Inverse folding.
């Protein structure tokens, strides 16, 4: 009976993924298990959506997920890596250890009701405009289904849920890597809410950012400007130089900034000024070379204005290292999992949202499409999932939780994340994760192949991060208006 | 008896003022009257100091002054010119009408105890760092003494106290001018707290300022920077142009600014950015010509960045038009009024404050010195008293309410304004005002001469202001972090 | 016998061009004819190389080509389109009219001997660093061979040589288009010297440029800077704004400039300053939109500095509209024409040149490789051949006239253009052109198909240029240090 | 008889110079001698005016002056201090040694006929727009008259003419100081053409300047901008920073610049760019402090753009140290010397020139006025006479060689310098110099007093220059478009 409610897999296999072996039909069982829990985890996602919490302060969100996983037999370790809301939840024992990642932090200022017009629940409050309420819940739903399937079939190994806080700029996963929590994992699966169902070899942008603080000498701006040294001059000289730098970096580079403090009073030479700048590039090594030049621009600003510059490290995320084998595994899984159809109400909701988007969205694929291929699209966002991908084989995909054309970090995304659309897309994610993980537990050779593919892509390079190994997570970063990641 | 406590007038007559007639000894009576009320009004100044209120929100300060003047027989009109705290208090009738101005607003963020170490009463709270608690109180003290003297001697005319709110950027006096409250006045006397006792023909700086708001188009700074139009670019193009303008304006010009909004998030092309800029020059016409060019810089910023610029008028104060006759009157009055000596405690207090000043202050004259001359020093601050001076003959001076070397708008000034030093300097001011006003009531020809001197200095020019005649005072300006004046 | 000296066609057919019909063997005859004239035209190319002439001043170079074509029975029309060195040379009559384009202008300052070390013939003098000495000569060689082949086989139609001057920034072809000289052509073939033999569907960059002249008011910079209006300020405000624009245009955009006049004397406020700026983008419509914004930056510079700005239109080249059918024709022709092998001396020469290049060039294909495919590489240069391609079906390719890795506009290219390598590559070009043109004369349906493909690619868009239809060519542009094109 | 032709001394003694002793009537003799030679030296000034020569290339001008002085019995030493056109001419022996300075270099690009409309003799050629043709000739005329008077009266001591080349930026006097040529002088007198006759205690501006050269890495601006490092970016970052510096230096500071090289071709990332910048301030120590900050701006430009910056020292002139005693001597001398009246033609000529000046000049004093006082006007030009004044007591004045209102370095000044007006003003100068020098020879105590006044003004400070003591004069500076001084 339940199976009827599961959307049928798409027959059309888009792209060029070569299926090396037939899909194992027994995996259907795990889909049944996902279906059995879907409603409860959907409600959980809504609960988190209704109480959006900023990075490192996801106390209630993290707690709800931990509780659900405990109830289902998982062993939870919390307060990990110096972060109160970081946790792992495990079931099983021994190898292989397969991880599934869940995020649950919200974004500042993006509060939104679940309606297709811009309307915050509370103005200026956080909102789930990146759909992490769905992310954490779908991954937990998958974990529970996988555990039941492993248990039922006596599959060997460990399923581990990674509760990773503060993805939006706080870099929770990086602290968890430093704490060794990914060291023994054999493969990790992750997903992200999106406007379509996709598996491919795409990557995203490595980023680096932080606060450039300039310290000058205050003076009355009319009575003694020559006695002052303007910190804002330092900022402007730096930024003028950064603008000129744009011509001389690879064109895929991004450098963007705001002035977070531009002086205290117009009649006082500013003694303090501050820039929040993020740079990005698909390749971390290239980005690091660009970053050195940005740093020189900042130093030049201080030199020329006779001010002092201090840099506080902020975001630093590596771009995703795609895994060829896990992309195959997840492509097969998604084809098996299938997409979904909008109901009449959902279609109406999506159409109204799309009307609020500037550009035409007619050509975007709907939630019934499954776009699994070996293309290498260049994503334009950044995520600490990239850092995980350099430490352990990572498989990654998106599902259609947002109306076609809706981008992350918008009020439209926040509306979808609290709606039926979001919850349907979340089930596609859970089904794909569950099928993929069971596939790996069933085929240890695939786990080994994923490791080999991982090493091949790394090609001798090692993961580097500017986040210090012994550092404490910046628990209050989200309250300071500091950088967020995407 | 009481007269003993009055500091003797300085014998040394500094400067080059030519006394055209002997000082009228009968005026001594008004000094006795000042002395009789000095302690009560000193306590009033302390009360206002303990409850510092920002511009247009000086409800309690204004109320206390009104009450004291009412009690002393003045007729008070309040809620004038659209400002709840603007008032006049009159006694007598007919011509001449001699005005005495009082201010009572505090400065944001300059809370300070009456001790010689930086120590706010409440961090971030307002404070009387410009000594307006003394200003309003001394003027009221003088008004009461003058009224008593007029009454005793049957002098003809009207003494009018102007309770002028929001001098620190709100331009209260300008709205009172627009409301016609200075139209029938024959002469107005004013003073300002300072670090020495001085009467001269100096002026200050005309100023003009406001908020330049740039409106662009937001876009994800990594995913679609080419779809965004950066309001911060508009700001930076404007400000780069303003910097280049510096070479090509008269060297006495001042242009200073802060960036009050430099974008919301580093990963979003800023849709809004804002500059608060003030320009100044000794001459308003020159300043107006410079201002047109600043406006072009702002328009250029919008043009080049494809953003929209809106300007919100802020501060606009004319520089003081000195009055040769009233300067003579006040010079004589101050020489008669005399300065004061520090007590041992006060000397100690002043010395400790001076230690906190960067530069040497040894050579600054003490409170016993009376520096009355016809010099034309160029002040570096701005005040809406300048606007009054273009509408009615204005006489103006400073007294030593701050320790020598202490400048306005500092914690040191706030400390002095609450101390015995401040109250002693306030009495010098009240004595000078009282002697000056009585002199004018006694000598109608002097009032006429002051008018003639006024017309001569104006030389056919008329007062202009950017504050619209029908405008409502910006009652909340001080809460918006907008410009203050000095 | 002669055929032995002809390099054999490469058997390896690189890429994915689909051959729809077998290569016509009779075309071999035209290769014999090319070979018969190759030495003489090679000597002609050397003669032009030894006397490098700048755009619109190629009197001797143009004359030599005209003479050779006249001698071979072509009817020459010279002094066309207002340009003394523009000409056409025709043979035959009626349709189809197949054009072959030849250029012959040199580049300023790139004088170089035919040796692998940087050594100008005359320092600062022009040089053939773009290989146009080969370009014009190979095209003429092909035209002669084609004429002979048409004559021999009685092929119907007209072969027309376009002698197009001043490609390096002067836009000779655009004036020839305006003069109607391309209006009746059915197809045009062209080529360009390069470091490899390639036919594909690639395009290049549309460009637009010119001189931004700012006029201010001079004044003694120490005695009266406030009376001056700095034209250099106008330039700097404009350029600062252009730098900020970089973030907000498509990343493939290029904007580059020099300051051609930055003031006359350091003690005088500059009354004149000038910028030479070129912008580029693969798509002319996108470029035009960007250009409007550059113009706003310039206007903003004038507005903010109170100077006047005048723009003088310079370079404006459209990007190439590829022709699918002519690409097929030329791919087949090049495969038939074949590449060539370096002799031992040439290999040595090439190797020494390559050592002077910064980057590794090991992986670049040699002159024996023929890379014909349907790829769409994005070229990074610009040419007025692009404008031709929007008016008539244009087929285009490169041959290996430069050592692998050598780029145009370098002393290394100038050295190759005068060497045996250059002349061998020139013969590959002539063979390809000759085979292609004969193919078209033999197959009128192909000419029709080329026209259809042309219309399809245009998709209703029409050619637009900023060069006015009635304008006179800027005959002295190359003497004024103005923009060159690539 | 001759005395009739001498303009009568002005009776009106303007200003506040206190005459400590009566004017010695015998000095009239020297005026007779001046008159005797005036016509010949006037013709000499015209000869130099007709052959304007740039700094260090005044071969003919210097030669003519040397010849005239030799003929009159002076001993000439030429080719001094490494400069072919520097010389001294002496007569007499022993102490005191009184110097008189003469300049004779022209300004580039200021060729002008002796008519009141802008009309170069030869467009772009040099011209005597600073009147140095008069300067050198009047000083020589005075020297000859002084020698005759000394001879006639048996006055002890040495009269020495300093032929100082390249005042317009080449700093000839500084090299002559370094060569020890001023070491034994007791006092030096100098003058400069102007629009009025003035002696006072004024000074001028110290200056410092030079070339900031930036070296980057060239790259094709469309094909590989990211491989280039733009030298022009270095320049613009530096200059943007200099613009911001303006707010934070004393308002009397001047900083002005041109971009002498802004890149070679718009399609190449500039590998070289150059700024010529001069800064000035009345006080050399203040200027030196500002200069360090300008240097930081330049270093910041290099740092931020990853280019290399080299600085080549140019102009460095100290401001004049006034000498109170020599000012007295020259005031008396000028009052004795007298001014002159315009003839009807000269008045007409002056009036037509004045019409070409923007501002009203009605109130400027005419050539009959003698303005001798102890005022301290702040001059806005710079001169290497300033450096002399720090090494030996220097007396300095101007005479009315230009029509009232005409400033130096204009075509109007060049016209006057070749006209009768110029020659009349030149005679006033020669008379003043002659009277002054004879006064000093007659009164050795005055020479001693001048030395004492010199030491008092120096107040322990010593002359410093950035021109190295062993350096060779920059003989070709004027051909390189480098800085000129004024």
């Amino acid at each position: 009976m339940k199976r009827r409610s599961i959307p049928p897999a798409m027959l059309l296999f888009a792209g060029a993924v070569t299926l090396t072996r037939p899909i194992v039909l027994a995996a259907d069982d795990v889909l049944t298990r996902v279906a059995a829990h879907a409603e409860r985890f959907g409600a959980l996602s809504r609960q988190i959506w209704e109480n959006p919490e900023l990075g490192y302060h996801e106390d209630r969100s993290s707690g709800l997920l931990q509780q659900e996983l405990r109830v289902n037999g998982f062993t939870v370790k919390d307060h990990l890596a110096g972060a109160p809301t970081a946790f792992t939840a495990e079931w099983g024992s021994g190898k292989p250890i397969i991880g599934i990642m869940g995020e649950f932090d919200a974004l500042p200022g993006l509060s939104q009701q679940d309606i297709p017009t811009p309307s915050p629940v509370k103005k200026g409050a956080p909102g789930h405009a990146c759909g992490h309420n769905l992310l954490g819940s779908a991954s937990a739903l998958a974990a529970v289904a996988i555990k039941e399937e492993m248990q039922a079939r006596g599959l060997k190994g460990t399923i581990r849920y990674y509760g990773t806080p503060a993805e939006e700029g706080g870099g929770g996963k990086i602290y968890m890597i430093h704490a060794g929590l990914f060291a023994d994992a054999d493969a990790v699966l992750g997903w992200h809410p999106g406007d379509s169902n996709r598996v491919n070899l795409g990557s995203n942008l490595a980023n680096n950012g932080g606060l450039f603080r300039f310290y000058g000498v205050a003076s009355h701006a009319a009575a003694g400007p020559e006695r002052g040294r303007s910190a804002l001059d330092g900022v402007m000289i730096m930024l003028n130089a950064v603008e000129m730098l744009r011509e001389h970096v690879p064109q895929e580079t991004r450098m963007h900034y705001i002035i977070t403090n531009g002086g205290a009073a117009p009649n006082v030479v500013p003694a303090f000024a501050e820039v929040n700048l993020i740079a990005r590039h698909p390749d971390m090594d290239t980005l690091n070379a660009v970053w050195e030049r940005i740093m020189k621009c900042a130093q030049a600003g201080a030199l020329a204005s006779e001010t002092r510059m201090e840099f506080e490290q902020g975001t630093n995320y590596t771009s995703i290292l795609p895994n060829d084998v896990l992309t195959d595994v997840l492509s097969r899984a998604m084809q098996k999992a299938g997409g979904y159809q909008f109901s009449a109400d959902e279609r109406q909701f999506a159409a109204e949202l799309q009307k609020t988007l500037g550009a035409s969205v007619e050509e975007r694929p709907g939630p019934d499409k499954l776009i699994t291929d070996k293309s290498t699209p260049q994503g334009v966002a950044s995520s600490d999932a990239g850092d995980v991908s350099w430490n352990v084989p990572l498989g990654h995909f998106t599902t259609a939780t947002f109306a076609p054309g809706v981008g992350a970090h918008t009020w439209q995304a926040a509306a979808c994340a609290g709606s039926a659309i979001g919850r349907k897309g979340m089930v596609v994610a859970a089904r794909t994760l569950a099928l993929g993980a069971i596939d790996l537990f069933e085929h240890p050779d695939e786990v080994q192949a994923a490791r080999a593919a991982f090493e091949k892509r790394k090609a001798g390079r090692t993961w580097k991060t500017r986040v210090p190994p012994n550092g404490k997570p910046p628990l209050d970063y989200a309250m300071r208006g500091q950088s967020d990641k995407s």
